[in-house]
Write a structure and sequence with these properties.
This protein has 42 residues and is mainly alpha-helical. The chain has 1 helix and no strands. 95% of the residues lie in helices and 0% in strands. The longest helix is centred in the middle third of the chain and has 40 residues. The protein is rod-shaped and about 60 Å long. The termini are far apart.
Length: 42
């Protein structure tokens, strides 16, 4: 029982972490695009 609960918590943490990594990557891409757009405007 306890090992399963721990395993489930770890799995959830792992998938949350993967989701956050994807979101961070998309934010970084968005920032990069904003930078490029701003430098093109000058």
């Amino acid at each position: 029982m306890a090992p399963n609960a721990t395993h489930t918590a770890n799995s959830i943490r792992q998938s949350d972490c993967n989701v956050l990594k994807k979101e961070v990557k998309q934010l970084e891409i968005g920032i990069e695009l904003d930078r490029n757009a701003n430098s093109n405007r000058k």
